[in-house]
Amino acid sequence: MNTITWPDFEKVELRTGTILEAQDFPQARKPAYKIRVDFGELGTKWSSAQITKHYRKEDLPGRQIIGVVNFPPKQIANFMSEFLVTGFADENGDVVLAAVDKQVPNGQKLI
């Protein structure tokens, strides 16, 4: 495992946000949704999320997640992803969302 310094970690903007909507993303190479998330004072941002194995798109709105909001936008098929959705792979390699266990204001930075 590589180690990093505290200043390195402080550069990563891990923020809370609430999913506002989820849409199918048939153009993605791997099954994914397009999700729009409210990050409070940072505004709303879109991302692609390969979370179709564990989550139905209609169950995602209202769910609070953790995203990395300071990566540059990334083109995924015909879509521009504006942040990175965080999660962990299960035993099959399918993504389980990283989330907070109690509601906090949108846009809060991990401390």
UniProtKB/TrEMBL annotation:
CDD domains: tRNA_bind_CsaA. Keywords: RNA-binding, tRNA-binding. The keyword tRNA-binding applies. Residues 8-111 form the TRNA-binding domain. InterPro entries: CsaA, NA-bd_OB-fold, tRNA-bd_dom, Tyrosine-tRNA_ligase_regulator. It comes from the Bacteria. GO terms for molecular function: tRNA binding. The keyword tRNA-binding applies. This is tRNA-binding protein.
